[in-house]
């Protein structure tokens, strides 16, 4: 378990916190591209790492991410006019370009030099793979744009969603690297879920509910192996990639299904954006697959219309159905793989008190991920951070059978490398 001080250190991500400074060294998802669909469309509020920001796409299509509050009298730029390559405050007309430069100050004399001394805080915002990525760290340390496999594929090969999760990012992310819960939290839905049903891997998971865990450090984070019995000669391995600071790639079920992954981006210390994506490296997603994803199946979720808050949420006890639980239709009485996860993560409170935990052998990945994050805090001024190099990101997860005498990270070495245009390895 963590000490109280360590828990605070890992969970606070505001501008002046150690973890906040660490996260600002990475590019991360800020908005779906569809939220700023065209030039001069309405600006969008976005809060990231405790900072309230405004995002807009200007007349030329350039993207801006600015401090939400005007440098003049701190009115919200959300109410501003997005026009003629700038965002103009509705209060006194001060106008900013995408880099935060003040381009017009109609409330001051025409010959005034005052505007040359004003600059709105701004951050780079770049579109790639259907996502608008933000970088909020020092300009001189800005890394290359992310090269996670799904972000480099054609538009038809991926589906992306995001949802509001009402917890700190850490307990959400820890859920993403916890493979042992699948045998219980999702036990009665593995045959119904389109990403699991009809696969050999699904049968191995149901047959062996006590996986053995092995974890190896990778250049980008961790390689997490969950081992289950398959036959006399082989183990069934589900191998998850955790890429610093908060990305996961889910081991697939069969090559006919798309792969999946997540990111958990802090909004503030008590909420985060849970990003989810499905993708296939060698084909477009089928219409039936897309329809299931749009309907909130698999790792996605149903929304309250017009929002990114989930329809099942803590205010309605996640639409829990005790009869469905009693009849073994769902293990927890909650419908949907995603909701089964986030309901339990949110039940821990806004920020889980990790001083009360009693961790076992199945929690090895969670323990090592925490250690990796804490180690990065100690070394970030002197060493390259894990997960920043694009080579760290060009990896896959896998599920496979391996001989019992073969270490999982050696047996899966080729399967976890991205080779563009090739299928992934999965059973």
From TrEMBL:
Domain named Rieske: residues: 27-134
Entry annotated with the keyword Cytoplasm: no
Keyword tags: 2Fe-2S, Dioxygenase, Iron, Iron-sulfur, Metal-binding, Oxidoreductase
Matching SUPFAM superfamilies: Bet v1-like, ISP domain
An MF annotation (GO) of this entry: 2 iron, 2 sulfur cluster binding
Name the UniProt record assigns to this protein: Aromatic ring-hydroxylating dioxygenase subunit alpha
Domain of life: Bacteria
Tagged with keyword Translocase: no
């Amino acid at each position: 378990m963590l000490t109280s001080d360590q828990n605070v250190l890992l969970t606070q991500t505001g501008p002046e916190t150690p973890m906040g400074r660490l996260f600002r060294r990475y590019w991360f998802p800020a908005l779906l591209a569809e939220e700023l669909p065209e030039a001069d469309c309405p600006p969008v509020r976005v809060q990231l790492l405790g900072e309230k920001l405004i995002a807009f796409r200007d007349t030329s299509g350039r993207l801006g991410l600015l401090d939400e509050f005007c440098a003049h009298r701190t009115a919200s730029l959300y109410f501003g006019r997005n026009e003629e390559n700038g965002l103009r405050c509705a209060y006194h007309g001060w106008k900013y370009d995408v880099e935060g430069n003040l381009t017009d100050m109609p409330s001051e004399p025409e010959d005034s030099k005052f505007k040359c001394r004003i600059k709105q805080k701004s951050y780079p915002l770049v579109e790639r793979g259907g996502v608008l990525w933000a970088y909020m760290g020092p300009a001189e340390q800005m890394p290359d744009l992310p090269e996670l496999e799904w972000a480099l594929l054609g538009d038809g090969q991926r589906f992306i969603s995001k949802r509001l999760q009402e917890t700190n990012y850490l307990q959400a992310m820890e859920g993403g690297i916890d493979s042992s819960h699948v045998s219980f939290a999702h036990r009665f839905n593995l045959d119904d879920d389109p990403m699991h049903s009809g696969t050999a891997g699904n049968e191995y998971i149901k047959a062996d509910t006590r996986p053995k865990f092995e974890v190896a450090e990778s250049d980008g984070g961790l390689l997490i192996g969950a081992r289950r019995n398959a036959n006399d000669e082989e183990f069934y391995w589900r191998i998850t990639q955790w890429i610093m600071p908060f990305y996961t790639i889910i081991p697939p079920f069969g090559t006919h299904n798309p792969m999946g992954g997540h990111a958990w981006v802090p909004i503030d210390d008590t909420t985060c954006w849970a990003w989810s994506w499905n993708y296939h490296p060698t084909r477009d997603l089928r219409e039936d697959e897309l329809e299931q994803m749009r309907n909130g199946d698999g790792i996605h979720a149903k929304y309250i219309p017009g929002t990114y808050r989930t329809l099942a949420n803590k205010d309605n006890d996640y639409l829990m159905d005790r009869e469905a639980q009693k009849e073994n239709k769902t293990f927890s009485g909650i419908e949907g793989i995603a909701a089964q996860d986030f309901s339990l993560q949110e039940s821990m409170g806004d920020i889980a008190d990790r001083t009360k935990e009693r961790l076992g052998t199945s929690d090895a990945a969670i323990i090592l991920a925490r250690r990796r994050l804490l180690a990065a805090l100690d070394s970030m001024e002197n060493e390259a951070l894990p997960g920043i190099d694009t080579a760290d990101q060009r990896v896959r997860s896998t599920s496979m059978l391996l001989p019992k005498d073969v270490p999982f990270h050696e047996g899966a070495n080729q399967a976890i490398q991205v080779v563009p245009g090739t299928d992934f390895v999965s059973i």
